[in-house]
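Appendix C reproduces, verbatim, an entry submitted by the partner laboratory led by Prof. M.T., so that reviewers can inspect both the input and the predicted structure.
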Amino acid sequence: MRSDRGDLNEAIASLDMEYWLDREGVNYKHTRGSSGRQANVKECPCCGNSKWKVYIGLESGLGNCFVCEQKFSRWGFIQNYLGLSNVDTVNHIFAAAKDQGWRPPRVTSVATSNTNKLALPASIALPHNGRNMKYLENRGITSSIASYFGLRYSHEGKFKYRNDDGKSMVQDYAKRIIIPIFDLEGDLVSFQGRDITGEAEKKYLFPPGFSSTGTQLYNGQNAIGAEHVVIGEGVFDVAATKIALDGDMKLRDVVPVGSFGKHLSHGDNESQLGKLMTLKEQGLKFVTFMWDGEDKAIDAAVEAALIVHKFGLTARVAILPKDKDPNEVAPSVVRAAFWQAETINAGVATRLRLKKR
């Protein structure tokens, strides 16, 4: 699980010491040592000696004073130079790293509500008492990711409803992961129940009578204001894509959403295309389709990208290894597919459709 400590370590490692020395007005000179470029600092922040006896590696961030023999890391030098408490040092490092372009992964989702009074099956929020489910961990879904998507676990939950004839019916959601589905406004409109036993007749269950997943963009409520979204297929593909995007600071403002299949519904404002247009009004500019590497999925992604392109968005098609989806490859493979995605136009569309895969 990612933690605040993990984010801090990453922020520290990303902090360019030369940038920081200039930012804080530290008096130093450039020099070289056995380990590469160094900063020769005039005054030691520990002993106060000002005879240029402090050296700090600009790449490593490690250094020492040859008078008091104090050794420094990025953290140690910054804290001593500024005379800060531990808490203030943390805040300063995060601020300085962000000034350089570092971005933490988004671990908090937008506030959601249940104005439709949709009663989820009896279930517990994940992680529970700080512990995640082994089923999710085995799929690479960490506690923070489970929390971000609002995943729950139903051990013996039931969903009661009435069919078209008014007859009282019950769906059994026992031993399933409950996956809430929200609209762009953050209102609960439906949910899925994913079997974790491998023995159920149906891998997924859906509550009858509520919003069709084909009209929703999974995780779309977290894409309000985003400039770039990646459209995956299923819920776990979206989760895997988020994990991959979080692994690259340059991609942490890109939001993964799901289409619940290799198709983009269109026709009115309530369709998935209509929701993309709503996001466009909120600042969306780029859409990257990342369905699986199956030939039919690539053809479908090309078709959907051409439709999106007609409505004024820059549409891209990312191609994963053959017959693999984001949940079946390493995060590095997902990121590579994202960076190598091609912007769609008529010529690119024809080439991708004809290309032997």
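The chain has a mean pLDDT of 91. Additional entries are available on request from the coordinating office.
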